[in-house]
Amino acid sequence: MAGHRRSGPRWPFGLRYLCSELLRRARRTLLSAAGLGLGVGLVMVVSAVSAGADRAQSSVLRSLYGVGTQLTVDQPMRSVGALQDSSHALTGTLEPLPPSQAATISALPHVAAASGGLQLAELTQSGALFSRTRVDGVDPAQVAPGPLAAADVVAGRMLAAADTTRKVAVLDGGYATAQHLSVGSTVTVAGAPFEVVGIVKRSQEIGSADVYLPLAAAQTLARAPDGRPFADRVNVVYAAADSASHVADVQRAIVHLLPTATVTGADAEANAVTGSLRQAADLIGELGTWVAAAALTMASVVAGLFIVGGVAARLRELGTLKALGWPAGRIAGQVIGESAAIGVLGAIAGAIAGLAGIALVGALAPTLSATVPQDPQSIQSSTVAVHLAPHADAALIAGAALLAVLGGVLGGAVAAWRAARLQPAVAFTRIA
Amino acid sequence: MYTLSSVTKTYHRGREGTVTAVDGVDLVIADGDWLAIKGRTGSGKSTLLQLLGAMHRPDRGAVEFDGRDLAGLREAELTRVRGEAIGFVFQTFNLIPTLSALENVEAALVPLRLPGAERQTRAAAALADVGLADRARHLPSELSGGQQQRVGIARALVKQPRVLLADEPTGNLDTATRDEILALLETLWRERDLTLVVVTHDADVSERARRVAVMDAGRLAVVVGSEGN
Fold it and tell me: Where does the chain cross the membrane (chain B) (predicted)?
């Protein structure tokens, strides 16, 4: 009597029947699940690589601009020629904003902090050549959010609250080296001397400004594009959202508050990234997504064909159930249940294949390069090396699993429809 | 039990056109009757059995079952009639190969929505009635042809139907096993006051029946014997 079934009679009948069918057609079950799993695994790998590329870009940008949760609010100059026409040496590169703007923005929901600043440029002439020095006015009492938020002090110190009324400056490392300046030196801006108290460096050796001055000093020296003093006005506000998930909400609120302002967040900064990292991200985003979608569709179709084929091979069996009085809905439910179970197996197979593929890509992915402008207004750029690390989280795995089950159910729906429409007389077919 | 009046059933078969499988049949089957339906292949006897089994509606005429015309019932009602009142026995047994003998019998009770424990108790009792109590956990592939047909009979009778419709029930069995199955059917027919309708080619089967109907080209050519048990 070896081999007879000992399955637990306490299980619901439909579940016992379902398990029996899947085991009986083990090859078909495994092929269907493997097909779904392959498609789902590919979707997982593409999504994880895409997420990895996004995170790599964010990482580059965060180290450069301190972005992530940070937003920059400004208004472009109304007159393109304002800077060049100005007779003043230190001129704002953006339209002035009311002094209360930072306080207004900081009061918005989900804004952790906001501070005003100045983005200035000093043009100096040496013979026939003009050189441009980028000067930022920074609130010494609140350097974050702001251009110094992601900077590392390599010599001296950072600007502090006590510097608000002092004539001190912090220099970018590259500028200090080029100008042979160090801590304790004097740097001249718009004819005024400032003591260098610190040298800063971006982690990726790319800086946005050459000289950072206390905001009050910068406001005293600079002229707006309209030729008027800045007085207590600013031309940029740096805002930080309380979490990355609220960046978009904060961005929308600021746009609503200041319809004419330009609000630059991580997304806009990401567009400034070029190089093989950007190419990889674009390729994954455009081609990879389609490949993954096509693979999943094909996998669902193949699984569906297997399931439909399985029903075709069971016509007499299902017809017998109809002859026994099983309602069409019960038979369809049985078929759908079987295909959903195949989908679950496909989800498990897909998760395993996906995680293995992600690990493989992480191990074999070449180092990519990201080329980033030195600051949003600059045409100069620098290139940094980035390792692409695919990123998979629980939501991705859950989503992929759901896709597999959905693929199985969709594939089974056709088979179930066919099974439900079977005539009970099929039971009398004498072909074994 | 059954009253068939001018029952006609046609099929549309592509290039062959329309085929009249059952053509104007009038037939009365009383409670407790044992009717054998004979005829050549294609004579319409299986279609007649399927009409009796609420699997088809006639194109014309009436198939009254306990006073209800099956032609007027909706699909769900026909399904309910099959599930509650009619048992089927098939030539090729039609057991689900992945389910045990007990589960195959239990499958017939699923439409009745009985509690699981009651289903299993009744299925086990039905298997015992056909002498297979010790084979309850066996798969069909582990049973002989005769044993499989016994499981098929247990499955047909477990819901205690009033009528048993059998399509060549001994067609796939050797002579000795055929006699065992016929003896079992006859015993169950007597003990349970069943109405038994058997489609057969086998003269030995029709000889045991109380009445014999002969089908020819969709028509009921002759009925031998008297109505009643």
Answer: none
